[in-house]
Amino acid sequence: MIDWLSKRLDQSFSHQNLWTIIYQDEHIVVVDKPSGFLSVPGRGIEKIDSVAHQISTNIPGCIDQPAVHRLDMDTSGILVLALTKDAHRNLGQCDRYGRVEAAA
Q: Of the residues 72, 74, 86, 95, which is catalytic?
């Protein structure tokens, strides 16, 4: 985990022990999401806490909706989130045109 962010996570994120940032640059962040935690906010205030919400509110300059894809709540795995609009568009196009494959 990135040092400056891990310090911020310990202070700010309610679920800092449930998922881990495994890569980050100025365009994307890659997260290892465990089962039992939302990838993106659900409907209603009680379901706002999610990886996407925590990333967007705790990484300065992140776009409001960084999720390019999602994993079901009960599914663990790797999430790639965009920090910029350009990264979001480019990652979405990769997914749309079949340049991304889900691991079995």
A: 72
Longest CA–CA span in the chain (Å) reads 39
Query: Number of structural domains, the chain?
Result: 1
Q: Range of 35's domain?
A: 3-96
Structure tokens at 1: 């985990």
Q: Strand, coil or helix: what is 94?
A: helix
Over residues 65-94, mean pLDDT: 92
User: Is 92 part of a structural domain of the chain?
Assistant: yes
Angstrom distance (rounded) from CA 21 to CA 25: 11
pTM of the entire predicted model: 0.75
Please say if 25 is a catalytic residue.
Answer: no
